[in-house]
Amino acid sequence: MDKIVIEDFSIEYSDGTESLRHINLHIPANQLTVLFGPAGGGKSTLLRSINRLNDLADVKSTKGQILFDGINILDKKVDVINLRRKVGMVFARPVVLPFSIRRNLTYGFELAGVRDAVLIEESVERSLVQSALWDEVKDRLDEPAISLSGGQQQRLCLARSLIQQPEVILLDEPTSGLDPISTLKVENSLQDLKQDYTIVLVPHSVQQAARTADTAAFFLQGELIEVGIGAELFTNPTESRTQRYIEGRYG
Amino acid sequence: MDTPFIPGPQQRKAQAIFSQAIEILITAVVKAMGYSAIVFVIMIFYFLMSEGIAAVGEVPLSVLFSARWYPIEGYYGILPLIGGSLLVTVGATLFAVPIGLATAIYISEIAPRWMREVLKPIIEILAGLPSVVLGFIGIIALAPQLRVLLDLPTGLTALAGSILLGLIAIPTIVSVAEDALDSVPRSYRDAALAIGATRWQTIMRVTLPAARSGVLTGVMLGVGRAIGETMTVMMVTGNAPVMVRSLSAILMPTRTMTATIAAEMGEVAKGSVHYHVLFLIGVILFLISLIVNIIASAMVFRVKKRAERILS
Amino acid sequence: MNHSSKKRMVVQKVAFAGMSLVASLTVVFIILIVVYIFSMGAGAISFEFIFSAPYDGMRSGGILPAIIGTFYLTVGTAVLAVPLGLGAAIYLSEYAPDNQVTRIIRIAITNLSGIPSVVYGLFGLGLFVLFLRLGTSILAASMTLAIMTLPVIISTAEEALRAVPQSFRVVSISLGGTRLQTIRKIVLPEAMPGILTGVILGLERAAGETAPIMFTGAAFFLPQLPTSLTDATMALPYHLFVIATQVPGMPIQIQFGTALVLLVFVLGMNLIASIIRSRARAKRQW
Hints:
The complex is a heterotrimer. By secondary structure, chain A is α/β, with parallel strands linked by helices. Chain A has helices at residues 43-50, 80-86, 101-112, 117-130, 134-137, 150-162, 180-193, 206-212, 230-235, 240-246; strands spanning 2-13, 20-28, 32-36, 59-68, 71-72, 87-90, 168-172, 198-202, 215-220, 223-229. Helices cover 37% and strands 26% of the residues of chain A. In chain A, α3 (101-112) packs parallel to α6 (150-162) and α4 packs across α6. Chain A is globular, with a radius of gyration of 18 Å. By secondary structure, chain B is mostly helical. A two-stranded antiparallel sheet of chain B has the order 1-2. In chain B, a hairpin with a 4-residue loop joins β1 and β2 (75-76). Chain B is flat.
């Protein structure tokens, strides 16, 4: 079953950078879908379109549809706030808010006006367990989040995106600044999270793409070159451009 | 928890509609506040013009542009006032620009870090000194010194005004120029030093030229402050509306446009010719500051960072 | 080391020495002014000087009405200018699109900041005192000072708001926050020290200004304290101007004492601003 269906989607920024042309892509539920390719290919742009974060940028035009459970989220009538609550996002650099660890997590509830203390307390623990951070921070939840290490901060960001139990998680090179051990922890968490969530990942390397992908989509200069089952695409790509990228000839 | 994205009217909580209405309302209020700056500039110009324009009808241009300011007898020649403003401002510029630039270069390029931390707040104190306090110092300390030193009949001269106006302009010049020097990329300096330039050569041939537009902006804004300064010049320049005819005028009393308004506005009747002429002088000052500031802000080179701002 | 590079080093030494001399002289001169006023004015300061009204043609007594008046004017300016300035800064930093109108707003702000203070006085006289019939009053003077202070508050507050990392905003929005929630919960609290610093520096200027209040609200001599917003008031800067230039036979000590009180008022605000700024820098998490 497809959670998200992207149909003939095109987007263009006012300054002409990083646009996407005629993208068609099915993102299956409860799988990890990887969007990979050289920088500037439009992967992040696609991620930011799925939660309409691109609304903040100078977008010149969008065409086509992005169907989320069959509803076109590019429609003007869509409640964007509600959409974003259903779609968690983790960014390349760990961005912890200038609050305590706990408030970083509960901030989403704060925005939504949720005050149920029991629910909040349970959610804090669950999300930290899911992101493999609970044991490290359970005794210091009221310390400033900035006091955590880079790897811990990024896992906190993952936990923060999970706390309101979204349906989809978008990750934009979430491990690009992390050491190998932290990277592994994040990757392992993602594999576990697949049971409950649909995950879309922009990996920071081809190797990570190959390690993690259930479905993989290769983007080059604003175009979707090919889509395949993860293992197949990386061992036996159909397009020569994909093959040469995977082999490290460019990018 | 399962709410659809396109809620029907019955599903949309009243609370959500309320908070969205608040959001729209506050956005509108904030926008109006942003636009208020334009409204104020227009209003200021309008109110100055509405009183000042009458003067052009009441006083023949030949009188207005004559060399005699003596309102009691109907002489409304504003040339000596313009001359006085120019004289004092040029004097202040000659005094403030070298000192301001040297100080800015010293703070930004030469001084050790701790020295910078000491100097900057002290310069800021000068920026915060009320002009009336500087005027007071001018009357009490500076003018008597000048009188004795230069053997003048009075120390309350254009020179005293120039020195104090220079002091007022210095903090503006220093802070803007220092900002500009500071924002020159490190790599420029490193490149110059790497090919064997001394630090001094680097400053003069690389850093200062690279910061040129910012430094000029600082000078313009400093000069702009000097032209518009009122209390200090009124207190120390002796207030004689004499036509500037030679360089020696710097050692004599003079009278600026700003001081004229401040000194005479309190005593004129609303709607009189004198009242209108003072507003006309206000219009001239307004236009001068408009021109100075437009030139200054046109010189500032701004790099656009819009896309970067939003997506990183 | 060859001859020419030796020469270059000498040039550099002379130039550096010259620059440091100029910079130190400037700073020493500033310190001298402050010390001079403190040492000459200290003798005038007494309980009576601070807490009583002037009498005997202002040649005796204290300056209480002027102190209170300046306090009222500063508070009045703050009440009017801070909400407006902050709102405008929020608009420019958080909402304004990058277009022609925004550019015009910025030009307008730059121009407001450059208009001579005495021209603000004329404007206040024309609009508030005469056209709106507020008379020479605390209200008219505060309004005039507020418009004069507005550009300072807008530009420093905008700078403080912009200094808050954009990533905080993006994260907040991505978590389902509205723009307003993001501003209220993250941007404003983080920018607050910078905003406060700017506000205080703006008010410091307003407190020390004379020309804008001369025709709009300042009184030459008023022994009693103002009782309403529509009363005129004495004010420290105008009082100093009056006793330094308009009153023959004025004891020099009272003049210095008045200058000292004004200086303490203004420098005190400057000091508070510096403390807020350095504390916030030490605490900042980004």
